[in-house]
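Usage example:
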Amino acid sequence: MVDLARVQKELHECNRDVQVSGINVTLKGDSLTHLIGTIPGPIGTPYEGGTFKIDITLTDGYPFEPPKMRFATKVWHPNISSQSGAICLDILKDQWSPALTLKTALLSIQALLSAPEPDDPQDAVVAQQYLKDHQTFVSTARYWTETFAKTCAAEEKIQKLVEMGFPEAQVRSTLEATGWDENLALEKLLSS
Amino acid sequence: MSTQPTSTMVSDSIPMASSNPKDFAKKKRVNRSAKLKQCKLDARREQWLSQVKNKGSKEEPNGEGGACGQGIHVANERGNLMEKLAIMPQGKEEENGGCMNHYSDFDSPSNSPTSHTSSVLEGNDSGTNFTGGSSSSNSSSSGGCCSGSMSEEDNEEDDGCLDDWEAVADALAATDKKQEQHNSSLDSAPESDGNVVNMSSQVSGMDSSQQNPKGRGTLPGSPVSIRAWRPDDAFRPQSLPNLSKQYTFPMNSGRHYRGGSVWGCKSLSIPTSCPICCEDLDFTDTSFLPCPCGFRLCLFCHKRILEEDGRCPGCRKQYKHDLVEGETTRDAGCLMFRPARSCSMISRS
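Running the assembly step on the lines above writes:
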C-alpha cells in the first residue's frame, strides 16, 4: 500500500513552491499512484524552453522503493531512451533513498538533462552521437525540444487564437511562420 | 540561614547540606518513580560511579591550584559516603593539596563573609529569582577562588548530586524546572546555605539518569551535562564543548526537546514528523538516533528499512546494529564526551 499521507504531503509541498522550482506534480487520474510531473528544460541546454512531462507510477513499496519514472515527452538525451522515455538514473534504481521525494527525484532528472552521462547510456545511438558528433547532438536535441517539449504551449496558443475566431489551419501556419510568437501571429492574422 | 554565623558555617552547613538534599532527593525520586525505572537508573549510577572514580584520579593534577581545585575535590570525594562527609575537612586536607588553599581561603575573614553574604542573598532570592542568586554566587566565588559555599558544595556532591557550584548555579537558572526549583528552594532556603541546598535538591530532583553522569562526571560546567544524558540526547555531547557558559544558560531552560534542538548542529534539525512516513514523531522516536549521520526517522520506518536493505536514508550507509540500541548510543555518547568535559574544566581553571 502506498503511503498516501506522504504522497499527499509531497504533492502539497511540491506545488507550494512551483513558482520557484518550476517543478510540478499533478494527479494523472483519481489515484494517487499515477502522477504526472513536469520539469522545465534547464537553461543553457538544448532543452531550454521545453516543458517535459514525466510519467510517475508509485509502487506499493513507496517510499521504500523508488517511484517508477519515465519521460512522457520525447527527449533526445544519452541517458533517456528516445523510444520509451526510460530514464537511466541511479537514484531511481539502487541509489534510491526513502528520504528522497518526488520533487527531489524530478530535480535530479532536471540535473541529468543538463549533465548527460554518455558513458552510462540508456540510448546508445544518442550517446554515440553525443560523443562523436556533438554539434549534431545539440541540434537534434534542440529540434526534439522544439517539436515535442513545446507542443503543449503551441497547442494552447493555437487554441487561444482559434477561440478568437480564426480558422485553425490558418492559425497554425501563421504561428509557424512567426516562430510561435503569439502576438506577432495575431497581428499577422488581423492584417491578413 | 541568614542568622547563621559565618564562623560556624562549615560545621553547621556540612551536615545540613549533606543531609537535607538527600531528603529532597529522596522525595523527588519518589515522585518520579512512577515515570522512571529506578533500578535501571541505579545501575547506571553505579556504572558512572566506577567510571568517574577513575576519571577523578586522572584529573587530579590539573586541579591543584585556585578555583579548579573544586573540580578535584569533586573528583576525589565523589565516591565518599555520607558518614565521611561530616569529617570531610580532615579528609580533604590529607587527600588533596588543593584543599589546603581551599580551607585557608575559607577561614580568612575577607573571603568567607563575602561568600556567605552572597549565599544569604541567594537564599532570599531563591524563591523568586534564581538567576540573580546564581550570578551572585558566581561572582563571589570566582573572585575568591575557593569559598565557604564551595566547600559545602563539595560535601554535597558526594551526595551524588553535584559536581560544581557553577553547575549548580546554572541549574538554578533552569526555568523549566520550575516545580522542582520552587519545591526545593522553598524547602531548603530556610536551612543552611540556600544556594547550595537549592541546587543540590534541584539536581537530585532531576532524572537520576542525568544526575548520575553529572555527579560522577568530571565536568564542572554543567547542568549542561545533566541534560546531555537525557535518553533523547544521544550524540549531543559532540557539540557541547564549543558552547560558552552563558550560552548554555538559556538552553538549560529548554526541555530536552528544545535543548536538544539548540545544541548540536545535527540535533538542530530534529524533525517533528518522520521524513519517511510523515507521521508525527513521539518521544521515543525523537530520542532515537540510529545513524551517526544524524538522520532521524520513526521506529516503524526504521524497522521497515532494516527488513529491506538496512541502509540509512540519510547517508545510504548500512545501519550499525550496536548503535541501534538506545542504551548503547547513550553510553557511546558519554564516552565520547568525557574528554571534552575534562577539557572544559582545564580551560576554566
